From TrEMBL:
<keyword id="KW-0479">Metal-binding</keyword>
<keyword id="KW-0862">Zinc</keyword>
<dbReference type="GO" id="GO:0097196">
    <property type="term" value="C:Shu complex"/>
</dbReference>
<dbReference type="GO" id="GO:0008270">
    <property type="term" value="F:zinc ion binding"/>
</dbReference>
<dbReference type="InterPro" id="IPR007527">
    <property type="entry name" value="Znf_SWIM"/>
</dbReference>
<dbReference type="GO" id="GO:0000724">
    <property type="term" value="P:double-strand break repair via homologous recombination"/>
</dbReference>
<keyword id="KW-0863">Zinc-finger</keyword>
<feature type="domain" description="SWIM-type">
    <location>
        <begin position="76"/>
        <end position="114"/>
    </location>
</feature>
<dbReference type="Pfam" id="PF04434">
    <property type="entry name" value="SWIM"/>
</dbReference>
<protein>
    <submittedName>
        <fullName>ZSWM7 protein</fullName>
    </submittedName>
</protein>
Length: 140
C-alpha cells in the first residue's frame, strides 16, 4: 500500500495483515478500530471479504485491477494504487462530500489483501483492457 491514506489507517491495515499472518484470525480484534477509522463502510466491507467478493485481475505484463462484486450484484473495478472505485458511493461520499476515506469496495480490497482472502484471476492483456474500457463506457 502506498502512503496516500492517513497514517492511522495505513497502520491499522498493517496490524491486521500482521495478525492474520501470525494467527489466521483477528477480525473481531480489529472490528471496533475499523469502525472508528472507516465509519459505516467497515462492516459492509468485512461482509464483502467474508463472501470472497474481491478478485485481483492481473495480466501477463503485470497490470492489475481489482473487481469487487457489490452487495447489489454489480461488479465494481477498484484501483488500490490510487484509492479509486467506480461505484457511485465513492464519487459522492469520498470525492464530492469528503464524508469518508474510502467506499466499502476499496476498503474490502485492502482488507482482503491484509487477510489473504483475495481471489486471483489471470487474464490476457486484451481481456484486461476490455474490463477497463467497459468501465469507461458505462460512465460515459
Amino acid at each position: 500500500m502506498d502512503s496516500t491514506l492517513p497514517a492511522v489507517a495505513e497502520e491499522l491495515l498493517k496490524e491486521i495483515k500482521k495478525a492474520f499472518q501470525e494467527t489466521s484470525h483477528g477480525r473481531d480484534m480489529f472490528s471496533f478500530r475499523l469502525k472508528f477509522i472507516f465509519g459505516p463502510s467497515a462492516v459492509p466491507a468485512l461482509d464483502l471479504v467474508d463472501q470472497r467478493s474481491v478478485t485481483l485481475v492481473k495480466s501477463p505484463s503485470g497490470r492489475t485491477a481489482y473487481q469487487v462484486l457489490g452487495s447489489s450484484g454489480k461488479l465494481y473495478t477498484c484501483y488500490s494504487s490510487c484509492h479509486f472505485c467506480t461505484c457511485p458511493a465513492f464519487g459522492f461520499a469520498v470525492l464530492q462530500k469528503s464524508e469518508s476515506l474510502l467506499c466499502k469496495h476499496i476498503l474490502a480490497v485492502y482488507l482482503s489483501q491484509a487477510m489473504g482472502a483475495c481471489q486471483e484471476l489471470t487474464v490476457s492483456e486484451e481481456q484486461l483492457t476490455s474490463i477497463l474500457l467497459a468501465e469507461e463506457e458505462e460512465e460515459g
